Amino acid sequence: MNTLYLRPNRRIMKNLSLALNAVLIVAVGILYYLHFKGNSAGTSASAEFVGPMPVSSQGIVFINSDSLLQEYDFYKDQKSKFEAEQERIKNELKGESDKLQKDAAVYQQQAIGMTDMERQNKEQELGMRQQRLMDKKDQLLSKLDELQAGSSEELYNRLNEYLKTF
Questions:
Q1: Residues 49-69 pLDDT 10s
Q2: 14-24 core/surface letters (b: 16 or more CB in 10 A; e: else)
Q3: N-to-C CA span, the chain
Q4: Statement: the pTM of the whole predicted model exceeds 0.90
Q5: CA spacing 20 to 30 A to 56: which of 15, 68, 92, 93?
Q6: Is residue 5 part of a domain?
Q7: Domain annotation covers residue 31
Q8: In a domain, 3, yes or no
Q9: Cα 19 from Cα 30, distance rounded (Å)
């Protein structure tokens, strides 16, 4: 009987990091566009020094993504919900995995006194339970990925709406 192990899901954390970086890159791109959209296409760059240029009314904005995410309550709420859901799924899968391993250990102890047919049926039952557990794990992780993607999209939309006010 194969032993089931639960690993921290690095893929989810990597995806979260990638999604947040993508959101921040888009936000910087939007700010860049907003800053330079006032320039007309017909102007050409000149090497002639004309003195200090007045700062545009839009100004230059620097966004420190670490500080933004640390101080943005929506992000903190979404992150805590995501982590709570991740922990719940981890505990649920661990509990079912532990029960399956315990039942497999009991089977191994009792296998000596079983007939061939009983052993075959029990092995088939344990194999089906293991397959269902793996399917459930895949389903729950997929659901977690969808939750994370939805949160990232909502974060992006909120930041985008906020940046439109500038």
A1: 555 655 555 556 667 777 777
A2: ebbeebbeebb
A3: 61
A4: no
A5: 68
A6: no
A7: yes
A8: no
A9: 17
